[in-house]
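Trying the structure run again after the queue cleared.
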Amino acid sequence: MNLPPTARLRLVDRLSRELYVFKVEFLAQDVPSGYRKERRRELRSDLTAAAADVGMTQAVRDLCPVSVLAHQLKLAEGRKLPHVWTGMITFTVILCAWAGMMMATAYALLEAASQLGGDRVVTVHASWVGTNVVVTNGPHLLSGQWEGSGLTLAVLVVVPLLATRTWRYRPAWLQRRRASRAVTAPDPRRVS
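Done. Tokens:
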């Protein structure tokens, strides 16, 4: 009975291989997933085959650095790619900053209203990046309200889209259509 090559690998070897593959996958995240999956399978099988000859530690060591391999995958795509993770991280940072500022503003307004209030009803409000915060405090009344605006939505949507470089996104059907229209005439500047 022939065992598959992965069945012969020790756990440490499998973990070493998967760590290398994961690092390449993470650094090449901007490469379209279909192409990336093919390269990931190839890398796994090549590492497994090399491990049978020289051992997994040496096989991983013989490969180029992870960043170089990821860069080669990006270059092989042949076009500039959007940076999806950069956009997601930017959105998360902006959302957390906005939520933190809204909570801090609401807390500060609540403290101000309670100090100003006494036996009367006091309403205080402030805004940050187009979001209005209103706090009303009285002897038997406490209310708070957040109200977003178009500016808030624009900051939360447009800035991450710019960070993602969405103008570089071209779906596969559009790439095929453009490729079929392309004429492969020689460049007159390069003809000698």
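DSSP finds eight helices and three strands in the chain. Worth checking whether this holds up in the mutant runs.
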